[in-house]
């Protein structure tokens, strides 16, 4: 009886064991690496960039000139409908677990991104480690059709380029789905997303001719950031304004800047190697004030004038100019965004909401209050290294 009971228990537990009930065979799916979202009138135009298996694993008889990816475009009243309509073109089921980039068209961004993000966040196949960007002066579908010279898969090229730029150049910023939804849901914080534009010929960019030249006729280049008021895009930040935003948000890893030579014609270039930013808020006469402190560590990378950087007065002048330049960069950018766009992309409202909830509860429309917010900026630049030589090469040559 005991053995029979054990057999019955084991038999009942077998169906509960983990298995491969949800497996996806490679010959039954199409790997989606890029997704483009556009709005045309009242319909969505959806583009999917798929890995071409015949190019990834070439077989006898398959042309070596075949594209490594294939892009399909379809329209629908909703995103799910457009993607299902696409099944009449795509021979296999769309699989989103390897998605790298979502490109949102400028027109869709201006009309609101909450609705398309609802579908993306609900899809159980989609992970949250992909990046989202805005197509500048073009449709998302056009961006996904441009051939990449450095990486055969354009979506991968967009992903790795943005990741490298985010680490080494402060004029871009990467954002994932989780971070974007947080910015949309937080009181007192509006999102900003990096823009990408097509430089050169869009027509040649869609052809393999684009990768056959040393200087490709068409390139994808990250350019500025799109800023939002709630979920609607309201404008673009230029390079300096994007840098200011990243400084305030403490998201600068490394970048490069330059200063005028003290008392000389020429410039001193500086590698920014470490940045620490901190925001605080206080109340004065019943009004909140935000204080920003930015600490920047930098190394001298290039000198194009005849100055002696071993002299303390020269270093003091460089520090003074560096402090003022960063302070001016941030202050001017904040004032422009306050007056021109009236949307708090810096997160000042979120800070006040956390630190002074009583003051925050008095505001019905924070973006209107943001326009009048008093912000003070303090910058502290620190010169760490001067390089392996003291004098400039030009100065040594003239001796």
UniProtKB/TrEMBL annotation:
- Record-linked PROSITE patterns: PROKAR_LIPOPROTEIN
Main subcellular localization, coarse class? membrane
Keywords, sorted A to Z:
Germination, Lipoprotein, Membrane, Palmitate, Signal
Q: How does it sit in the membrane?
A: Lipid-anchor
Recorded hits in Pfam families, A to Z, give: Spore_GerAC, Spore_GerAC_N
Q: Where is the Spore germination protein N-terminal domain?
A: 22-197
Family statement:
Belongs to the GerABKC lipoprotein family.
Q: PANTHER family attached here?
A: SPORE GERMINATION PROTEIN B3 (PTHR35789)
UniProt protein name = Ger(X)C family spore germination protein
Q: Which organism is it from?
A: Paenibacillus baimaensis
